[in-house]
Amino acid sequence: MNAPGFAPARHSVDQLPFSHSYAALPPAFYTRLQPTPLPNPYLVCASPAVAELIGLDPAEFAQPEFISAFAGNRIPAGTQPLSAVYSGHQFGVWAGQLGDGRAILLGEVPADASGGMLEIQLKGAGLTPYSRMGDGRAVLRSSIREYLCSEAMAALGIPTSRALCVVGSDELVMRERPETAAVATRLAPSFIRFGSFEHWYYRDQPDQLKTLADYVIARFYPELRDADKPYQALLTEVTRRTAELVAHWQAVGFMHGVLNTDNMSILGITIDYGPFGFMEAFDANHICNHSDTQGRYAYSMQPKICHWNCYALGQALLPLIGEVDDVHAALAGFASAYQEKIDVLLHAKLGLQTDQDEDDELINATFKLMQDNHVDFTLFFRRLGDLQRDNPAADAPLRDLFIDRAAFDAWASQYRLRLGREIDNGSSSDAVRRAAMHAVNPKYVLRNYLAQVAIDKAQNKDFSEIARLQKVLERPFDDQPENEAYAALPPDWASHLEVSCSS
């Protein structure tokens, strides 16, 4: 049975039933404005799965009205375009007022039969009052990366914003070099950030802070309204969601790249894809963002930084919570929530159904072995599922990933002993474990070089590789033998790729 307000019929763009809860907040929270038209726009890519989420007919992709609407050249019926204000800490330093410098919110639409809502936002739609020194545009390169990664993360089961489409243009904008402009349309239940609360705290405007917190609780955390201390409960829940989110990132080797407080979702979902990367040759201290010269957002730092960001949110909510001890109590749940989630995820990745005393030692030894050999993160865990408990002779595909084969052999012996203490599934135990491990260890992730190949072709108006790659990434856990090349080690030239905050 469909939830009230959701129409399963497929809509055209102008039939989408927009509503505007964020626009109902006081005017200080945003600026109403129109997108800047994109010259001679063309469709680069679009996601049928996301269209289905909001009841949009994928046949619309071929219509000029669809392209013009999501280029920002035409305002769809029922929308109320606006850009939101927020502030934040960037690389650990208070940056003051920021805001949607190139993003324009159109409104929200019913999301699916569950009764949820999704905001629709144009990223790269032109100058806003919050653009600072920017031009308000996104480039084709970064828009394709965000589109592909949003959908790849959703397929991996990681909480994330989604991407409906990318519309391109031959208009040139300057980054490190001239690049063509694009608009990416992204969706999320909300794009409110930690920095949205920091904005009002540092401006010493407690009434606006309360208004925002009450809005977030009423719309996204209604179960907290009747709590004895609802604002403390809000911080507790956001802290828990954030801890579990970063555990998911660590478990697939995902690096966000720029975990500023203005890029942290109040809903605990992944937003603002920029200089992200998936771990390849394992290095716990790997920095995926070329702009991160101090390594603040390295892979190993992500849990600590997300915890730090929760403290920044706790500071902003202090006027509402009232007691510092209550803030600390809410934040204290981060470590346990993270540890519980990462333990569950890593046990599953290693094919361990039970939790035993020596497991921490085995897990630490696994990552040390990976670190010492710089083994490919995704391939290691995927091939580990093929290991046969009683047949070391079949280890070659996994063993060949390691420089120090003797060290691998010693580790594999310990791993096999641990498997021997698992529940015995009889003669099918290897097959059962393989199926379970392959269901959580992806074969396909969005490696930077795969995205770059698609981008290079798209810059020559060939968008076929985006569609092909998206299809592969929609089924990351399936073997897909016809797409084996997408699971291969990166080529030598990929080591020279760099992504930065301009990505």
From TrEMBL:
<keyword id="KW-0067">ATP-binding</keyword>
<keyword id="KW-0808">Transferase</keyword>
<keyword id="KW-0548">Nucleotidyltransferase</keyword>
<dbReference type="GO" id="GO:0030145">
    <property type="term" value="F:manganese ion binding"/>
</dbReference>
<feature type="binding site">
    <location>
        <position position="135"/>
    </location>
    <ligand>
        <name>ATP</name>
    </ligand>
</feature>
<feature type="binding site">
    <location>
        <position position="193"/>
    </location>
    <ligand>
        <name>ATP</name>
    </ligand>
</feature>
<comment type="function">
    <text>Nucleotidyltransferase involved in the post-translational modification of proteins. It can catalyze the addition of adenosine monophosphate (AMP) or uridine monophosphate (UMP) to a protein, resulting in modifications known as AMPylation and UMPylation.</text>
</comment>
<feature type="binding site">
    <location>
        <position position="263"/>
    </location>
    <ligand>
        <name>Mg(2+)</name>
    </ligand>
</feature>
<dbReference type="GO" id="GO:0070733">
    <property type="term" value="F:AMPylase activity"/>
</dbReference>
<feature type="binding site">
    <location>
        <position position="102"/>
    </location>
    <ligand>
        <name>ATP</name>
    </ligand>
</feature>
<protein>
    <recommendedName>
        <fullName>Protein nucleotidyltransferase YdiU</fullName>
        <ecNumber>2.7.7.-</ecNumber>
        <ecNumber>2.7.7.108</ecNumber>
    </recommendedName>
</protein>
<keyword id="KW-0460">Magnesium</keyword>
<feature type="binding site">
    <location>
        <position position="272"/>
    </location>
    <ligand>
        <name>ATP</name>
    </ligand>
</feature>
<feature type="active site" description="Proton acceptor">
    <location>
        <position position="262"/>
    </location>
</feature>
<comment type="similarity">
    <text>Belongs to the SELO family.</text>
</comment>
<dbReference type="InterPro" id="IPR003846">
    <property type="entry name" value="SelO"/>
</dbReference>
<dbReference type="Pfam" id="PF02696">
    <property type="entry name" value="SelO"/>
</dbReference>
<feature type="binding site">
    <location>
        <position position="101"/>
    </location>
    <ligand>
        <name>ATP</name>
    </ligand>
</feature>
<dbReference type="GO" id="GO:0000287">
    <property type="term" value="F:magnesium ion binding"/>
</dbReference>
<feature type="binding site">
    <location>
        <position position="99"/>
    </location>
    <ligand>
        <name>ATP</name>
    </ligand>
</feature>
<dbReference type="GO" id="GO:0005524">
    <property type="term" value="F:ATP binding"/>
</dbReference>
<feature type="binding site">
    <location>
        <position position="272"/>
    </location>
    <ligand>
        <name>Mg(2+)</name>
    </ligand>
</feature>
<feature type="binding site">
    <location>
        <position position="136"/>
    </location>
    <ligand>
        <name>ATP</name>
    </ligand>
</feature>
<keyword id="KW-0547">Nucleotide-binding</keyword>
<feature type="binding site">
    <location>
        <position position="123"/>
    </location>
    <ligand>
        <name>ATP</name>
    </ligand>
</feature>
<keyword id="KW-0464">Manganese</keyword>
<keyword id="KW-0479">Metal-binding</keyword>
<feature type="binding site">
    <location>
        <position position="186"/>
    </location>
    <ligand>
        <name>ATP</name>
    </ligand>
</feature>
